[in-house]
Amino acid sequence: MFDLSRRDLLRIGALSVLGSAAGGTWRALGAKPEGNGNQAIFIMLQGGPSHIDLWDPKPQAGREIRGPFDSIPTPIPGVRFGELMKHTARIADQITVIRSMSHQFTNHIAGTYLTMTGSNNQPDQDREAHSDDFPGPGAILSQQHPAVRGVPPSVSLPNWLSIPGPSNRMPGQYGGFLGSIYDPFVIEGDPSGKDYNPLSLKLVDGMTPGRLADRISLLGQLDEAAHRLEKQHGEKMDALRQSAFDLIVDGRVRHALDLEREPAASRDRYGRTQIGQSLLLARRLIEAGVRFVSYNAFNQRWDTHSAILNTYRDIVPPMEQAYAALVADLGERGLLDTTLVVNAGEFGRTPVINKEAGRDHWPNAYSVALAGGTVKRGLIYGASDNKGAEVTESPVHPADVLATLWHHLGLSPQTTIQDRLGRPHWISEGKIIRAILT
After folding, report:
1. How many domains does the chain have?
2. For a surface tag, which of 86, 101, 111, 174 has the fewest beta carbons within 10 Å of its beta carbon?
3. pLDDT recorded at residue 9
4. Helix %, strand %, coil % for the chain, to 5?
């Protein structure tokens, strides 16, 4: 059950809808409908997961390269995954793994921005988000495709990716030059916690959505937040305020966020962990009609410069269990053909274990997994050398993954958006990876 107070309403108005914490364009603010009805889930394992220890093991290499983990077989003849990937190995025949990802950025922030936007126009160093950044996929989809009333087109969970600094805003996930009103809607908090109550979206006792919809006073409660931003957003304020109202009174998103409605066995299948319950929420949000859901791993959680053995024993099993459950669950519910699941990091890790028993940043060769839509099942695409150091076959750039994502969502990569100066930009400079599509 959910509880909704006046403070919560103002928070929704000021932060989650009207401010930079959410995409206010649920009604598209007059945008022309584009795309199809397909949906996507983007799992961002920020920090750089090791391709050698997960997707592209090198069992014939020396221990200094193959690392502390062995490999295990999959249903695909001759294909092995890292030993910690036991659930995912069983569904390898349902996914495509690209083992030939490559780019030139070694910095976490630069790599993340590239992964989420495809833009090479940046320094290879830490920086905060700017208003002239290239927008993330959730923002572009919000601008290009009107949402169903009461359902945001794009949701991020369980947090924003952040960077130490005055704003803590990591670039690549916001509206950028499209404007903050196209930021995805962020649902913060750990859904595996007993006190999980996102946004406190809970109607007070005795208050039904119908009764709440009849209460004119609700708009008055949002006025304070609305007036603060009225000058900035002008005529768009009414639509943004209506979006906040729609979220509160519409049952679809509220029900999706209520994990108490999910059978215990289903919650156990995903794992009672943050990523497990977050990906379960992602599936529920897809069912509710959200077009794009992104999961953001806690900041640089996958950055393993030392002690990779113990760290991976802790973080890999929850991730791979949840990922495998998501792919299988979407398939069983008839949603996988219309939902593309991307499992990515911003780069891989060095082929040789360092003196701290970890691996350092390595963008020269790494892996990304795709499942759903028209992506082929049981395919290993591209290859790295026998050390996992360099791409030897079919190189793929992050912009190509995004182009393939847009193709799935019914938008040409050459769809044009305009920056604040009216200059046109394609939504992706990459090429659709047609070899992995059916």
Report:
1. 1
2. 86
3. 41
4. 40, 15, 45
